[in-house]
Description:
By secondary structure, the protein is mainly α. Helices cover 74% and strands 0% of the residues. The protein has a domain at 163-232: Tetratricopeptide repeat domain (Serine Threonine Protein Phosphatase 5, Tetratricopeptide repeat, Alpha Horseshoe). The chain contains 13 helices and no strands. The relative contact order is 0.06. Mean pLDDT is 90; it is low at 1-8 and 18-22.
Amino acid sequence: MRTKPIVISLAFIILLMWAVGAEYTADYWVQKGKDFYKNDSYELALNCYNKSVDIDPKNADAWIGIGYTNIYWTHGKYNESLKAFDNAVKIDPLSISAWIGKGIVLSNQHRYEEALDAYDNAIQINPQYAETWNFRGKVFEALGNYNESLKAYDKAIELDPKCCPYYWEDKGNLLSSLGRYNESLAVYDNAIALNPHDALAWNCKGLALKSLGRTTEADAAFAKAKELGYKG
Length: 232
């Protein structure tokens, strides 16, 4: 039986490294932060990123790490995140990750026009990056500009149709909210084709089928979603 790894305190790690004479740089702490982040050890990740900027305040990757960790680990320290992303884009104006992070924060703060500006900066740097277009679609949807939202979702799908089922789900959800259920069904089917174990897509498909009065098919989709762990 596999056991969950024991998380060693950061202080102990630092002490151990010092004892063996290891040299740590700002980039070293960024990499350690990324490793902890991937393992959901967000507090340790944040400590590593902070250690990095203590060594080198102009390390853009460290500020980006601080920004994303504050969004997801602290459940909404948006002001701290925004400051970190602002520092990152001042240091590296061509960082797509920094502009997207800034857009996410601004969108969560309902500062949608500013969020669009951030995403537009990311698109100017690399118009082929699908995720930026999907985030842009979400902002237009929040603003009630559904035509532009659908265009953005379509662009994300065009650029990377097989990458992320949630590109398809976001488009399907908007179509359903507009009462375009037959179109949304085809979109949800594409999401399911990419990931047959996507419980959310099955549930969304069930809702669209129910709205069309196709009760038997809807019940089957809901049952599949529940089987896959959907708890909504």
